[in-house]
Structures are given as structure tokens and as C-alpha cells.
Amino acid sequence: MRAFEDLTLLRAFVSIVESGSISAAARCVRVSQPTLSRQLRSLEELCGTALLRRDTHQMSVTETGQRFLADARTLLGHAEEAARRLHADHTTLSGQLHLFATVDLGQWVVTPLVSQFLQANPQVTATLALNNRPLHMIQEGCDVGIVPGRITDDSVIARPAGVIPLHLAASPALVQGRPPAKTLADLKSWPWVSLSGSHFWGTTEVTLYDSNDAAQTLPTTPVLVSEGVTSIREAVRDGLGVALLPDWLIEKDLESGTLVRVLPRLKAKDLPIHVVYAGQRVLPARVSAFIDFAVRYLVAFGNTPPNP
Question: What does the angle CA 290 – CA 283 – CA 86 come to, to the nearest 5 degrees?
Fold first, then answer.
């Protein structure tokens, strides 16, 4: 078994056989003739038998050497193919991506992002897992995640990829049935709908800022807490309460009048987006390329102003 553990010795033997002599093989592989002779002797000692017969006139392969030659060529072929695949994995955009994102961002924003990347790189395929509790997705084998909010996993690298502006919104019916609100404190008696998860925005209080960056904070007791912002939007559309919602989700509702901005002169802190991946891994070319593409896409997405 030990005779097959050193590929250098196997290459030396195959080169000698294919070249017809040690001196010719030494010139071919660019090592000295004594070095190649030592490698052949080492291999024969590991095999416990002669692989070549040599005299002053010719060299021939023994019967054992013929069988060994076939096995050596097979092993070297497998090694070369493995090296070729490894090189291709790190230099060409091909193979499978394992991605994850939070549910709503994944459906509305990340899916078009992934679609554009795959169309531009037709040798790459992808799986996209949607999960609102993504803390351990990298540990479970995913390559890259796109996650809004604060990053609470210290084991990942998190590249900033833009922000999501948030707006306070409600249905026209809810607003019209109440006294006009001028400050955040005026919304104390309003029903609230909130998103679960402290890494997004708070479920027990809301903080808004004026043009001078002065903060106003209001404790809230939501009538509904949901894991999904699309779910929150539907509840707000139905008039259940007021909520902070991302601009990309309610842009068309604001244009159509299905929803209206509440306290439009006050602004919530933008929600950061990060592209996350494992820092201790050597990244294949497709993964590195996707990370760069995703960051560019999301930064441009966050910088695109809503339609007037």
C-alpha cells in the first residue's frame, strides 16, 4: 500500500517507462539522473520487488512492473483530474451555490438578485433557503446569506450591502378616524403592529428622528407581532394598526393610496443589510463572485429612490 502513497515516485516510474530510459526521463521531467534513479530505487524498495530490468544495452518492465504501471497511471490520472476540478472550482464560475435569506427579503429582493446572477453565469446553479431565524445557516453548510438587521453571529464575515429605509405607515381609514398626529407621542393610543426579532427593530418601542437628528421614543404594546413584514403590511392594509415597514414593500401602496405615511417628517433609522459568509473557508470562484455581485446589487437597490 505504501508504494502508492507518494505520487512523485509514481510519476518518476511512469516517466522512465514512457521515455525508455532514466536519462531520457530525467530530461523530460527536468530533474537530475541520479535523483530519478534514487526515486526508482525507493519505489522498488517500497514494492519489495524489481519493477524494471536494466543492463548496459536495454531496459524492460517486469511482469509485476507492468501491473504496477497500469495502477500507477490510473492513480495519477485520478489525481490530475482532481487537481483540474479543484483549479476550475477556484478559477471558473461553475457549480452549485447554497444561499439563504430572510423570508420577505428573499422573496422580494434576493430572488431577483440571484436570478440575474445565474443568468449572467449559466454554469452556476443555486439553492435558496428562506428562513427568518438564520443564525446557524453558515454552520449548516450554506455558502452565503443575505440578512437585514444587526448581525449577532460572531463567526461570520458580514459585508455591509446598503440599507433599507423604514417608514411609519397605516391605512387611510385608521388615520382618518383619529385626531391628527404631530409627534410620536400622539400615537400612544394607536394600535401597533410589529416585527418580531430584536435584530430588526424593536417590538416594545419605536424611535423616530427629526431633521436635526433629535430622537422621539414611544413604548408600544402591539396588537400583533409577526415574523414576516409582508404579513405586517397585510394587517396594516386591513386597518389593524400602524407599523414601521420597508420602503421597497410599501412603495406601490403609498402611490395608490392603499397606505399613507404617518408622521412623514420623522424618520426611523435605516435597517442595514449584510452579505454574510464563513471567514475561515477558502471561497470558490463562484462564491466570491456572488458575494461581490450581491453587494453591488444591494447597494444600488438601497440607493434607488422611490418612484415619485
Answer: 110
CA 58 from chain center: how many Å? 59
Q: What is the gyration radius of the CA atoms in the chain, in angstroms?
A: 32
Q: What is the pLDDT, as a whole number, of residue 308?
A: 38
Q: Is the CATH number 1.10.3470.10 carried by domain 2-91? A: no
What does DSSP assign to residue 267? B
Spacing of C-alpha 257 from chain mean position? 37
Between 66 and 89, name the one with better pLDDT.
66
Q: In what order do the strands lie in the sheet with 95-101?
A: 124-130, 95-101, 144-148, 271-278, 156-164
Q: How far apart are the first and last CA of the chain?
A: 74
Determine how β-strand 205-209 pairs with β-strand 59-61.
Answer: unpaired
CB 241 within 8 Å of CB 116: no
Residue of 5, 2, 1, 7 lying closest to 73 (CA atoms): 7
Task: List C-alpha distances in Å: 21 to 42, 55, 156, 244.
Answer: 17, 11, 55, 80
Cα maximum dimension of the chain: 110
The count of other CB atoms within 10 Å of the CB of residue 283 is 16
Angle between helices 33-47 and 22-29 (to 10 degrees): 110
Nearest to 21 by CA among 61, 62, 81: 61
CA–CA dist 172, 46 (Å, integer): 86
| 261 phi, psi to nearest 5 deg | -70, 140
- What are the extents of the domains in the chain? 2-91, 95-164+271-303, 166-261
- Per residue in 7-29, pLDDT tens? 888 888 888 888 888 888 888 87
Name the CATH code of domain 166-261 (choices 3.40.50.720, 3.40.47.10, 1.10.10.10, 3.40.190.290): 3.40.190.290
Q: In which element (H, E) is residue 129 found?
A: strand 124-130
